[in-house]
Automatic annotation (TrEMBL):
One of its GO terms (molecular function) is monooxygenase activity. Belongs to the FAD-binding monooxygenase family. This is Flavin-containing monooxygenase. The keyword Signal does not apply. It comes from Rhodococcus kronopolitis. Its cofactor is FAD. Transmembrane segments: none annotated.
Length: 503
């Protein structure tokens, strides 16, 4: 049965107004200006992650020449930028292109339902301020909400934490009234957030101890890109940005590949770089030498060696041990050592959730995500007219986001030209399965079974290689393993006269 077209209709609904969502809106209106769209954002502001996280020292963990959009040069002085500068960059991108006029804030999408008879989605949302239900229909939906829960971070069940008389804070919800000057602060964790917080809290006058169960790889990078600055003095802004971006992409991919192919050599190089920075007598093997190989998990980037400097000067100390129990005045470790604390920061990771926890329904049947397979890392088998953005784990998020958005507008353009109303990836039964994120980080391992699967062969394999995706998503076919249908046709078919290799 066809649904009655009573709800407001737009061509495309974009879910999320963060880095990915604003980029998707820009690509859509720049390439297909006649398309109508709406951006539904559950929070009150533009920016996503960069508006949510407010902890001291919040910054990018990759350079801004690759975290920035391909279409908008990053002109800030810092290559490793602070969170406020990144947030302003996203806001300016939205305002300059008029994207902000298409955003509907406090709209939390709860369910999307596809009707093959109508060739459209019904998007159900709820206003967070009033609780009022809101319904739109759309021909295409883009999920740009990332892959972690915005309402809560991950905190383990610590023994005795209820006895602690100090304050326990998770970085995802940093309180604006927290004054750490002169206080003993224990930061629990060893990832990107922890290595950022350590020196930042020390600068605010705290006595900081980083407590980790096991080390992570930490590498220093210049806070400013001298080559990019020099290029801006002799080239137009866009040309200078393009060269700096390409240089940084090549460097990052080369480092990743070298770490994967020659892990022992990579370990040695990282260790030699650390020896001269943390000072004599520091126990590198205990506190800075992980059990896994470089890039089995993401490398933690520190600008201008700030954490190393804080360790060398004694502003930050590291303990590598397990928590036995919290006490009234701090933490007792498994070794028996006690860490006094006024504040404990649980930089213990994220809780992942696919597509913001939205329920996806296709012709009345709820899609079970673990039974779907990711197509080119951006669509789902058996789910029509739906694309999502999940960035790279080994490079800047926006590199993949830009490519996905470019692919989607090419796909929509192809459908317009051929007269199709729907497209759906059709899974090949011969393709084997693998976890969606083949990454050993704890936050991934905890929830990866609730995500879609990936395949063991193209186009179902989720590549973590920008240059391969550049060929596939920017220049490759948009019809391979894809079925198309005109309006009202639920069967879907490969277009007549179309070669699988034809774009």
């Amino acid at each position: 049965m066809r649904t009655e077209p009573t709800a407001e209709h737009v061509d495309v609904v974009i879910i999320g107004a963060g880095l990915s969502g604003i980029g998707a809106a820009h690509h859509l209106q720049a390439s297909l200006p006649d398309r109508t769209y709406a951006v539904l954002e559950s929070r009150e502001n533009i920016g996503g992650t960069w508006d949510l996280f407010r902890y001291p020292g919040i910054r990018s963990d990759s350079d801004m020449y690759t975290l920035g959009y391909r279409f908008r040069p990053w002109t800030g002085g810092k290559a490793i930028a602070d969170g406020e500068s990144i947030l302003q960059y996203i806001r300016d991108t939205a305002a300059d292109a008029g994207i902000d006029r298409h955003i509907r804030f406090r709209h939390r999408v709860t369910r999307i339902s596809w009707s093959s008879a109508d060739s459209r989605w019904t998007v159900e949302a709820r206003r967070r301020d009033t609780g009022e239900p809101v319904t739109l229909t759309a021909g295409f939906v883009m999920g740009c909400s990332g892959y972690y829960r915005y309402d809560e971070g991950y905190t383990p069940d610590f023994e005795g934490v209820e006895r602690f008389t100090g304050r326990v804070v998770h970085p995802q919800h940093w309180p604006g009234d927290l004054d750490v000057a002169g206080k003993r602060v224990v930061v629990v964790g060893s990832g990107a957030t922890a290595v950022t917080l350590g020196p930042a809290l020390a600068e605010l006058g705290a006595r900081v101890t980083m407590l980790q169960r096991s080390p992570t790889y930490i590498v220093s990078a210049p806070g400013r890109d001298t080559m990019a600055s020099a290029l801006r003095r002799v080239l137009p802004a866009r040309a200078a940005y393009a060269v700096a971006r390409f240089k940084n992409i090549v460097r990052a991919m080369a480092v990743y590949e070298l770490c994967q192919r020659f892990p022992r050599a990579a370990r040695s190089v990282i260790r030699r770089a650390q020896v001269g920075r943390v000072g004599a007598g520091f126990d590198i093997d205990t506190h800075l030498a992980p059990r896994y190989d470089p890039w089995d998990q993401r490398l933690c980037l520190i600008p201008d060696g700030d954490l190393y400097r804080a360790l060398r000067h004694g502003d930050v100390t590291i303990e590598t041990d397990h928590i036995d129990t919290f006490t009234e005045s701090g933490i007792t470790l498994r070794s028996g050592k006690r860490l006094p604390a006024d504040v404990v920061v649980t930089a213990t990771g994220l809780n992942l959730v696919a597509f913001g926890g939205i329920e996806i329904v296709v012709d009345g049947a709820v899609a079970s995500l673990p039974e779907t397979m990711a197509y080119k890392g951006m669509m789902l088998s058996g789910v029509p007219n739906f694309a999502f953005v999940i960035g790279y784990t080994n490079a800047s998020w926006t590199l993949k986001a830009d490519l996905v958005c470019e692919y989607v507008v090419r796909l929509l353009g192809h459908m317009d030209a051929a007269g199709y109303a729907s497209c759906v990836p059709r899974r090949d039964p011969a393709v084997g399965e693998a976890p969606f994120l083949d990454f050993a980080a704890g936050y991934v391992l905890r929830t990866v079974d609730s995500f879609p699967r990936q395949g063991d062969a193209a186009p179902w394999r989720l590549r973590m290689n920008y240059f391969r995706d550049l060929i596939t998503l920017r220049h490759g076919s948009v019809v391979d393993s894809m079925s198309f249908a005109p309006a009202g046709d639920s069967a879907g078919r490969t277009p007549r006269g179309t070669s699988p290799n034809q774009p």
